[in-house]
Amino acid sequence: MNRSPSRPSLAGSPLGQAPDATIPLRFMMLGVVSLLGTVALLVAHPDVLSSYHYNQRVVAITHLFILGFGLSVVSGAMYQLVPVALETRLHSERLARWHFPLHHISVAGMVWMFWTWNMKEVGHFGTGLALGVGLFVWNLVQTLRRVRGWTVVSFGIASTLFWLVAAILAGLAVAAAKSTYELVGRMDIPALLALPLAGLKATADFLAQFEPLGVMHAHAHLGVLGVFVLLTIGVGYKLVPMFLLSDIQNSRRAWASLWILNLGLAATFLAVLLQSRLKPAAALVTIAGLALYGVEMVAIVRARKRQSIDWGLRGFLTSQALLAPVALLGLWLARPGLVLDESVGRLENAYGFLALFGVVAFAILGMLYKILPFLVWFVAYSQEVGRAKTPALHEMYSTPLQAGGLGLWVAGLGTGLVAIFLASPPLSRTAALILAASLACFIVNAARILSHLVRPQTRPFRTPTQAAPSPS
Amino acid sequence: MSAPFILLDARGLEPPEPMVKILEALVTLPMGTELRAHTDRRPMHLYPFLEKRGFNAETTDIPAEGFVTVIRRST
Fold first, then answer.
1. What does the alpha-carbon distance between residue A107 and residue A125 come to, in Å, rounded to a whole number?
2. pLDDT, tens digit, 9 for 90 and up, residues A154-163
3. Element (H, E) at B69
4. pLDDT at A50 exceeding the cut of 90
5. What pLDDT shows up at residue B1?
6. Counting CB atoms within 10 angstroms of each CB, which of A114, A179, A190, A202 has the fewest?
């Protein structure tokens, strides 16, 4: 039997040093508040789903969703999961604590300024966001450096961090391109201000040679595909086998999926930015990476030792299945010579809506049902284990409410797509209300989970030997 | 001669159930006896609790079978 001793002693061991659980919890809770804000804005302004997406309201709501909800939850989850997944400890909890206010104050300011279309202030708040992301990336890069050898999971995480930096820099460049520079060239401004202003104006002049819609779409693909899709794939390769008691079935296939996706994303970014005729080729490379991921994920699920799949994981797997229609829609929209008319505009809206609310939000909500109970359980009960009976994770929330909420999310997605194709604001509002009802189910369950922090529900053991295993 | 041991099979359980089973088993572990816990994953969250409760642990990776963590009282 091939044995590899790996843990000689616990003394001084860096193991099990996941950060203080309240850090990821804070990110996740404010993330959910942002999703609530997103859905509330959709209810109040249903026209954003039925009108073309290049307007200030859509841009504001999209950034509230992506940065306020998606990136916040993902940051919290990564602070918790990366050390555990890679069997090391987080480089710095202090940096994570500083990241929290920087991120949320900046996102709130950005969304507000997008809504009023004050791009200079978007750039200022965006700089705050970039500082927070810088702390986050530095923290995780230092954490990754502790890991000996690359795994498919650490490569997926590293790729995500790279594209996150790229997406943030691209976003700042877009904000610079949409600002005005009255002060540049004036002699009465201090040199400390003159130099960055000249740099920003040079950036704006450089981006002026590209078509603005192409620049925005290229930035969006960096953010959604580069950060969220790559992350769900990289982390999915760890979490899905972990929860289903399975393993990666073909390591080469898993590695290839990530390499090809990285290549496809770089090609897609350039092709979209340059409005190139090679867009379909770039899309096909991306789809090849996604297809390999899909084949590997099916193999992982088929090889599972645990037969039942809970609703949280079903939500996550459904979100991953939705990558297929999103990818095919993206390929259709990548056709050269496609004229942007009303029907193409609706398809573009459907593409974005399905990617954001179908793939990203559904994946996050599904995984939150796995991560949130575990984090709360850990804070509330881990010290009590062995001393009193602690609740199981599934006892901390209502499973029917969970299933109902995830079902409502699917119904909201379907209604939203129909509303987009019909360009119907009333139907858009209905879709937003269904999504809001789904979110309400989640929030009620999240409140039930969080209530364990305030009112722990331990029970005494019936007998002192209740948990004793059989002697050998 | 190896120490007497108690075998605990915590495979097939989702986190944190393996940790719960192991920590509960340690409450009744006789003096001088080891607990050998068989898990599907390396028990990452377990180690700090073992240290706090006065136990040492050594985990061995057994490919295709999971992990065996031998836990004994610190001397």
1. 7
2. 999 999 999 9
3. strand B66-73
4. no
5. 57
6. A190
Kindly write down the DSSP assignment for every residue of A78-139, as one continuous string.
HHHHHHHHTTS--S-HHHHHHHHHHHHHHHHHHHHHHHTT-HHHHHHHHHHHHHHHHHHHHH
Distance CA A38, CA A61 (A): 6
Q: Give the nearest partner residue to B27 out of A84, A382, A386, using CB atoms.
A: A386
CA distances from A311 to A316, A317, A354, A361, A370 (A): 9, 10, 20, 15, 9
Query: Which residues from A are below 8 Å from B62, CB to CB?
Result: 1-3
Query: How many Å lie between the alpha carbon of B45 and the closest alpha carbon of chain A?
Result: 5
Question: What gap in Å lies between CA A96 and CA A132, rounded to an integer?
Answer: 9
Between helix A212-221 and helix A152-177 the angle, nearest 10°, is 160
Lowest mean pLDDT among A9-23, A26-40, A380-394, B34-48: A9-23
**pLDDT of A251-260, one tens digit each?**
999 999 999 9
Spatial contact of A30 and A104, defined as CB atoms under 8 Å apart: yes
**Phi/psi of residue A266, nearest 5 degrees:** -60, -45
Structure tokens at A123: 């750039």
**A26, A75 in Cβ contact below 8 A?**
no
CB within 8 Å: A3 and B60:
yes
Average pLDDT for B22-44: 90
Partnered with residue A4 across adjacent β-strands are B61
Q: Are B58 and A5 in contact (CB under 8 A)?
A: yes
Question: Which is nearest to A231 in space by CA: A169, A142, A152?
Answer: A152
Reported as a pLDDT band with limits 50, 70 and 90, residue A388 is confident
Contacts B16 to A, Cβ<8 Å: 374, 377-378, 382, 385, 393
What secondary structure does DSSP assign to A348-416, as a single string?
Answer: HHHHHHIIIIIIIHHHHHHHHHHHHHHHHHHHHHGGGBTTBB---GGGGS-HHHHHHHHHHHHHHHHHH
- Give the model's confidence band at A406: pLDDT under 50 very low, under 70 low, under 90 confident, else very high: very high
Using CA atoms, how far residue A67 sits from A72, A86, A197, A341, B27, in Å, is 6, 25, 26, 30, 46
For residue B64, give both structure tokens.
């295709």
What whole-number distance in Å separates Cα of residue A1 and Cα of residue A217? 54
Per the CB < 8 Å rule, is A377 touching B23? no
Q: Which two tokens stand for residue A295?
A: 């084949």
DSSP B15-34: TTHHHHHHHHHHHTPPTT-E
pLDDT band (50, 70, 90) for residue A359: very high
Which two three-digit tokens encode residue A138?
């530095």
- HSE on the CB side for A283, CA within 13 Å? 21
Q: Are A335 and A205 in contact (CB under 8 A)?
A: no
ipTM summary value = 0.84
Cβ within 8 Å, pair A472-B5: yes
What is the predicted pLDDT for the residue at A352?
Answer: 95
pLDDT of A14 above 80? no
Measure CB to CB from residue B58 to each of A4, A8, A467 and give the nearest one. A8
